[in-house]
């Protein structure tokens, strides 16, 4: 193994796995933290996907360190801590505390923080994160039900999460090339450990940043920062120079779309699918809490629509509706009700013959994959930037498209299934 990746949610893990695969690495993704002593599969890069983004800080740190130990034991020469391109977090973490713990474990005096992903409209300029043409704090992320992002200044956001000094390397410095960036980073860390927010407004910026960090043990960021890492290993003679695409064949069988994300992008995708005549069932957390909508009633509906055409089961809603539900049930409880139900429904539909699952939302994807009992994923073709098809690599005949809530075009659901 050359690169070990610790990802704080499942869709983010497939996102970075796709990026590395596109750049010519053999990539395997594990689901969940490997048990102590459990050997990891052979690959150039192994991505450990967790469900730690919104977990208690202590739990996120413990899981991340356990994943780090497993990756190091399998020979990883560099560690990447991967989080969302919208820097999803709270003032307590979990990005800063996990980065602190990994720096301590790896003996790193320096790491960078760069969530930029220009292909998906995420860019960092003068330390501020933009979503398309607007600041993060003006984007729909300000209304995220779990991690509302109301400050676009990443230096400020990250400094609230860590006691380690947070500094900035701005885009004009990045544009001067890898050696200039390397020198700037070393100057910032000469007086002690430091985290450095790095600007990036293009893929070239990300490649420069990756090259500048070739000799550092730890990087943190979105999937975009992985762009420059495979070439570092090629220059060192550790990775084949040719970039070959892997073959991918999906198991045949009925398709189901499961959507738990309440992002603006997913709201549009659900509306588009319904407008195209996809049979759809909406989930109501209040009805679930009152036992008026149960796994059994959802399954009765789904099994009646399981066939040649896909069906859609969704809890996707607009911010006002989400807020009303959270006020009655609590933020965590409302989300968990949906996740648990969709996990059980996914398992039962697989038993009924469903083989292709399109899932929207990081938390939802984690729950569904756990419900299906999938432990290892093979990365397939790209559907939209940051979203590949994947296939269970542990013997189960299941194809999965696991989409971060904010990713994908309006026709994503149907486009994904048409690819197969």
How would you explain this protein's 3D organization?
With 420 residues, the protein is α/β, with parallel strands linked by helices. The protein folds into 2 domains: 3-235, Rossmann fold (3-Layer(aba) Sandwich), CATH 3.40.50.10840; 255-419, Four-carbon acid sugar kinase, nucleotide binding domain (Molybdenum Cofactor Biosythetic Enzyme, Chain A, 3-Layer(aba) Sandwich). The protein is built from 15 helices and 18 strands. The chain has helices at residues 10-22, 57-73, 95-106, 154-159, 171-174, 178-188, 203-212, 229-235, 264-275, 285-289, 295-305, 319-329, 331-351, 362-372, 412-419; strands at residues 3-7, 27-31, 45-49, 78-82, 110-114, 122-125, 128-131, 134-135, 166-169, 194-198, 218-221, 255-259, 280-282, 311-314, 356-360, 376-384, 387-392, 399-403. The chain has a 15-stranded mixed β-sheet, sandwiched between helices. A 3-stranded antiparallel β-sheet has the order 6-7-8, with no helix packed on it. β16 (376-384) and β17 (387-392) form a beta hairpin.
Would you kindly provide a brief summary of this structure?
This protein has 420 residues and is α/β, with parallel strands linked by helices. The protein has helices spanning 10-22, 57-73, 95-106, 154-159, 171-174, 178-188, 203-212, 229-235, 264-275, 285-289, 295-305, 319-329, 331-351, 362-372, 412-419; strands at 3-7, 27-31, 45-49, 78-82, 110-114, 122-125, 128-131, 134-135, 166-169, 194-198, 218-221, 255-259, 280-282, 311-314, 356-360, 376-384, 387-392, 399-403.
